[in-house]
Amino acid sequence: MSSILIVGYGSHTKRRILPALDTINNLDNIFITSRNNPSDISKNYEYLNKEEIIKNNMNFDAVIISSYPSVHIENFEHFKNCSNLFLIEKPITNDLLYLDGDDFYNNFQDYQIKECLMYFHHPVYDEFLKVIRDNKIDSLEASLTIPHIEKNNHRYSKNLGGSSILDQGIYPISLILENFEIINDSINYQMFFENLYEIDTGGELFCETNEGTQVNLKWGIGYEYSNNVKVFSGKSCFEFPMFFSKPENHISKYYVKKSEKIKSYEIGNHDQFNNMYKDIIVNNMNFDYQDYKNLKSRYDFIGMLLND
Fold first, then answer.
1. CA dist., res. 168 & res. 255, Å (int)
2. What order do you get walking across the sheet with 113-116 strand by strand?
3. Per-residue pLDDT at 307
4. pLDDT, block means (10 residues), the chain with 308 residues
């Protein structure tokens, strides 16, 4: 019997986290806490008052933090004696200076802090790994861009942790840093801002890997939707649509284009949130992207782009 505490009851928790947890047989008790006592929580879950959890020394097999990025670490500190496993929605924090301190390193090790980059747990990522392993890669393109959303959304608020590079850019950036070694002198990038918004609204990055692969990344909010990875090797192009994020009931495919011929390979319908929770919470699997060194490198890289 496993018990899970979810901190935060916003749309992401309702749409993606709870449905993914519901289908895992090993999870028997799902609890929710939030700033307010919501009236629409299903009878399948139990609401817990934040103070009562601490007062009663309650313990959970895992805590999933799905709040505003600006309070992720605050929520972790509040509940850190309640579990030895914490899954924090990306970005793990918008306070990049905090990640430089000893407190974060010690907490990361002692409490098994994990950042929820769920695309690493989808079978399409395994197919991507086979492609870059079995072919000499000439170039790679990856993008995640979305149209503008409601202006009062927290993604536009700097105080709440809004930032395009932390919300969209972290996906293509993490993909490259996890699988390639970048030549620092080759990095060329632009960060985009709009007068109407207080955050960075997008960016582009060009670089070269130590094996000679040319990399082109793009991310942003306020653009035509894109969510794909393309890998070029000789006369072949391997195209992975809907790579980073997938809607519910999406049938994943990828395509191999060579000359005038196109072959499609169906991967099927997989819930990458469900896969991630099973991998980390139930099966206790370890992944390179969750190592302290890799996570720190990810945010050092993002910090360099943000602060230059």
1. 24
2. 46-47, 27-33, 2-7, 62-65, 86-89, 113-116
3. 85
4. 90 94 88 87 91 94 96 96 97 94 93 97 98 98 96 93 97 98 97 94 98 98 97 97 95 95 96 96 93 96 91
CA 296 to chain centre: 14
Rounded to a whole number of angstroms, the CA Rg of the chain reads 20
Query: What pLDDT is attached to residue 26?
Result: 79
Question: β-strands 188-193, 139-146: how paired?
Answer: unpaired
| E-assigned strand segments in the chain | 2-7, 27-33, 46-47, 62-65, 86-89, 113-116, 139-146, 188-193, 200-208, 214-221, 226-233, 236-241, 251-258, 261-269
Q: CB 88: neighbour CB atoms within 10 A?
A: 22
**Facing residues of 276 across strands?**
none
Q: Per this entry, what is the length of the chain? A: 308
How high is the pLDDT of residue 37?
Answer: 78
* 8 Å CB contact between 233 and 137: yes
Residue 54: alpha-carbon gap to chain centroid: 28
